[in-house]
Amino acid sequence: MQQSDEFGTLQRLVDYLYKQRRSVARLDVLLAAEMFDISGDLLEIVELLPPGSYSRQKLCDQLNSALAAHGWGLVYGTVD
Fold first, then answer.
1. Distance between CA atoms of 53 and 2, rounded to whole angstroms?
2. Cα 42 from chain centroid?
3. Nearest residue to 55 (alpha-carbon basis) of 10, 22, 17
4. Which residue, 26, 36, 48, 57, is the most exposed by fewest CB within 10 angstroms?
5. What's the rounded Cα separation, in Å, for the pair 76 and 41?
6. What is the pLDDT of residues 48-72, one digit of tens each?
7. Out of 22-31, 55-64, 71-80, which region has the weakest mean confidence (pLDDT)?
């Protein structure tokens, strides 16, 4: 599989969300994803997040799990 032009977008999104916060809500992630105008595939990954509050590690685990389940880790990159 080839890397997408959107490779690393989720990492930039995570970095943005946690620049000044220790925890974010699902709604924060969805709003930031829309602000970043991410692709439909990546928006699908973000929309899979269950409701709740997320530490950086917990959010990364959830996003990476969804990316792996779709087989998109190499295409869009994983997050940390």
1. 33
2. 7
3. 22
4. 57
5. 9
6. 999 999 999 999 999 999 999 999 9
7. 71-80
Contact 3, 72 (CB under 8 A): no
Instruction: List the one residue out of 72, 42, 41, 22 whose CA is nearest residue 32.
Output: 42
User: What count of residues does the chain have?
Assistant: 80
Amino acid at 44: E
Tokens of 20: 């000044």
CA dist., res. 2 & res. 79, Å (int): 18
Paired tokens of 7: 């490779």
Report how far residue 17's alpha carbon sits from residue 11's, in angstroms, rounded to the nearest whole number: 10
What are the extents of the domains in the chain?
Answer: 9-72
The amino acid at 7: F
